[in-house]
Amino acid sequence: MADETRQRKVADRIHQTVARMLERRIKDPRLGFVTITDVRVTGDLQQATVFYTVLGSEDDARRSAQALQSAKGLIRSEVGKALGIRLTPTIEFQPDALPQSAARIEDALARAKAEDERVAALAQKAQPAGEANPYKQDEPEE
After folding, report:
1. Cα distances (angstroms) measured from residue 141 to each of 44, 134, 136, 137, 138
2. What is the largest CA-CA distance in the chain?
3. At what angle do helices 58-70 and 72-83 cross, to 10 degrees?
4. Quick check: 2 pLDDT over 70?
5. How many Å apart are CA 79 and CA 18, to the nearest integer?
């Protein structure tokens, strides 16, 4: 098992290499605007999971996933050259769910803020139920 520092360095190197290849070398027309968000490498440096996002529709994401799968061999060979280690890790591309999760959280926060503003507006117009001073007072002595 590699230590965490080496594992992180290998992941960073894979991240840079894959991003550079998608930008310059992979000319597949199915490939949309793909961003590599993260790379995770197993402790034995044998498997790498590359997380990516695609800007566009679900159809763009599906076509980009197909393009990444077809370019996997070329990308793996370039990663092997860039790493210079004995065994090149296998590469798996995984769509990153973080942007969708963040969008759902943003929507929930916006709805909560709108509801808070509605309740605050109602509170401004509210009148006390009953007397203005509902607390018992001692009768003044005469």
Report:
1. 88, 21, 15, 12, 9
2. 102
3. 60
4. no
5. 7
Residue pair 88/76 in contact by the 8 Å Cβ criterion: yes
Q: How is residue 56 annotated by DSSP?
A: S
- Which pLDDT tens digit goes with each residue over 18-58? 999 888 888 877 887 888 999 999 989 899 999 998 888 88
Distance CA 113, CA 116 (A): 5
Q: What does the pLDDT read at residue 108?
A: 92
DSSP state of 11: H
CA distance 43 to 18: 20
CB atoms near residue 29 (< 10 Å): 7
Amino acid at 33: F
3-state SS of the chain: helix, strand, coil percent to 5? Answer: 50, 15, 30
SS3 (DSSP) at 84: coil
